[in-house]
Specification:
Elements (H helix, E strand, L loop, with lengths): L4 H26 L6 E5 L4 E6 L2 E15 L4 E4 L8 H7 L4 H6 L8 E3 L2 H15 L3 E7 L2 E10 L3
Helix pairs in contact: 1-4
C-alpha cells in the first residue's frame, strides 16, 4: 500500500532527523571535515580521509547517487552507466524504497531535482541502508552522495 503524501512527509522528517543526528556523531567521533583531503574508490567501496598524505580514517561506503548543479538533475548510482559494476550493484537495494513508499522517484534512474531534494533522497537512502551518515564529494559540476557505512579500523 503506497504511503499518502502526509505519511511520506512524516517519514522524510524522521529520516532527516536521523541523518542530522548521525552526521553529528560522524563529525564528533571521527572528525570528518577536519582532514586535508579525501579519496574514494568505487571498485572497493571505500572512502578515505588523509592528512599529511597518510590515510587517517577509512569507511566502507555505498554510492547513493549524483546531483548536477548545472542541469539540476539526480541520477541514482544503480542507474548510472559511468559507475563501476560494483557501485551499481551495491546501490541497487535503494530501488526497494519504491515499494516502501509507493513513490516512483525511487525506481526512476534519472530526473530533475534541486539540491534540497538531493539531500532528501540521501536521507531516505541513509535510513534504508542503516548507514552511519553521508558524505558528499564535490566533483566539479556534480556532487556524488555516499552512504557512510562502517569504519575500517586498522
Amino acid at each position: 500500500m503506497p504511503m499518502t503524501d502526509e505519511q511520506f512527509d512524516k517519514y522524510l522528517n524522521y529520516c532527516y532527523d536521523e541523518l542530522e543526528t548521525k552526521q553529528g556523531v560522524l563529525f564528533q567521533n571521527y572528525g570528518i571535515g577536519s582532514f586535508e583531503e579525501y579519496w574514494y574508490s568505487q571498485e572497493d567501496s571505500i572512502l578515505q580521509f588523509k592528512s599529511d598524505g597518510e590515510v587517517k580514517l577509512e569507511f566502507n561506503v555505498i554510492f547513493i547517487g549524483s546531483w548536477s548543479s548545472n542541469s539540476n538533475t539526480w541520477m541514482w548510482s544503480w542507474g548510472n552507466k559511468s559507475m563501476t559494476d560494483n557501485a551499481r550493484s551495491q546501490s541497487a537495494s535503494l530501488k526497494e524504497l519504491q515499494q516502501v513508499t509507493g513513490f516512483d522517484i525511487f525506481a526512476n534512474p534519472f530526473f530533475e531535482c534541486d539540491e534540497e531534494m538531493a539531500h532528501e533522497l540521501t536521507a531516505f537512502a541513509v535510513e534504508h541502508l542503516n548507514a552511519k551518515g553521508m558524505y558528499i564529494s564535490p566533483d566539479g559540476k556534480s556532487h556524488l552522495f555516499m552512504a557512510v557505512m562502517s569504519p575500517n579500523l586498522s
